[in-house]
Design brief:
Strand order of the largest sheet: 1-2
InterPro entries: E3-bd_dom_sf, Lsr2-like_dimerization, Lsr2_dim_dom, Lsr2_DNA-bd
Shape: elongated
Distance between the termini: 82 Å
GO molecular function: acyltransferase activity; DNA binding
Number of strands: 2
Protein name: Histone protein Lsr2
CATH class of the largest domain: Alpha Beta
Order of helices and strands: EEHHH
Organism: uncultured Mycobacteriales bacterium
Pfam families: Lsr2, Lsr2_DNA-bd
Structural class: alpha+beta
Number of helices: 3
Radius of gyration: 26 Å
């Protein structure tokens, strides 16, 4: 006896079964959050019609593939006015605790800069 596994896709909007080749997973994003939804042909087109109206009036941002959806809030590494490795080494030489990874606390950077002014 043989076993056969059949995967049946269901339209996430109306709950109807999607015939093979008659639906798709549509990916979209709103407010920095990405979503995926399985839709039959009719509902996929309806979503594109609705979103298309807003997309046509909006501005494209980025290169087409969505990243993490999180904006950079810290300056780029080249814009720092200090060397994190130097600050960490100085802090350790002063007996101060500092993590070897992540952002260097601003109060520690200030102390380092004052000591090396």
């Amino acid at each position: 006896m043989a076993q056969r596994t059949v995967v049946q896709l269901t339209d996430d909007l109306d709950g109807k079964a999607i015939a093979e080749g008659k639906g798709e997973t549509v990916r979209f994003g709103v407010d920095g959050q990405d979503y995926e939804i399985d839709l039959g042909e009719k509902n996929a087109q309806a979503l594109r019609d609705i979103v298309g109206k807003y997309a046509a009036a909006g501005r494209r941002v980025g290169g087409g593939s969505r990243g993490g959806g999180r904006a950079r809030t810290t300056p780029a590494r080249g814009n720092r006015d200090y060397d994190p490795k130097a600050v960490r080494a100085w802090a350790e030489s002063q007996g101060l605790e500092v993590s070897q990874r992540g952002r260097v606390p601003s109060d520690l950077v200030t102390k380092f800069q004052e000591a090396n002014a």
